[in-house]
Amino acid sequence: MAENQQAAGNENQSQPQFALQRIYVKDLSFESPNSPTVFQEQWKPQVSLDLNTSHNQVSENQYEVVLSMTVTAKLGEKTAYIVEIQQAGVFMVSGIESNQLGHMLGSYCPTVLFPYAREAIDGIVNKGSFPALMLAPVNFDAIYAQALKRKQEEANGESAEDKAH
């Protein structure tokens, strides 16, 4: 019986493990450079969203993932507001191969963080006296796949270029 428990313990150690340990706002900025005159204009903004993700290893099985987002709302040439946020999380990840680890940190973890960033952005926009901003969901799988493809193309282009020289 002790052998069965030990075997089960060994299996658990090799099993992939994932746990969210903490979510936090690392940085948050709101700017409304043209207020209060911008409030007098008809509210039909052009909203742009820039986002980026990064990660770093905190300890053996812990990774910090940071989702950086910049939302800019413009009325014609006037900037109504700019919101910048770095929504971060600490994730425990173990027993996952390196190619799967990249996908977890570059796609799955930002997907977990996005609703928190979206809520923080909506809240700060409301506090700036602007209408609610509900950002559409983002497909981080597609973004990660595009980034991976771009890296592969750059690597192939560089190796072909190196061979030509």
UniProtKB/TrEMBL annotation:
An example Gene Ontology CC term for this record: cytoplasm
Task: Tell me the superkingdom of the source.
Answer: Bacteria
Quote one Gene Ontology molecular function term. Answer: unfolded protein binding
Report keywords, A-Z: Chaperone, Cytoplasm, Protein transport, Translocation, Transport
**Subcellular location, in the record's words?**
Cytoplasm
UniProt entry tagged with the keyword Cytoplasm:
yes
Q: Name one GO biological process term.
A: protein tetramerization
Entry-linked InterPro entries? SecB, SecB-like_sf
The record's HAMAP family line, in alphabetical order, gives: SecB
Question: What does this protein do, in the record's words?
Answer: One of the proteins required for the normal export of preproteins out of the cell cytoplasm. It is a molecular chaperone that binds to a subset of precursor proteins, maintaining them in a translocation-competent state. It also specifically binds to its receptor SecA.
Which PANTHER family does the record match to this protein? PROTEIN-EXPORT PROTEIN SECB (PTHR36918:SF1), PTHR36918
Subunit structure comment from the entry: Homotetramer, a dimer of dimers. One homotetramer interacts with 1 SecA dimer.
Q: What family is this?
A: Belongs to the SecB family.
Question: What is the protein named?
Answer: Protein-export protein SecB
UniProt lineage: Bacteria, Pseudomonadati, Pseudomonadota, Gammaproteobacteria, Pseudomonadales
The gene name on file is: secB
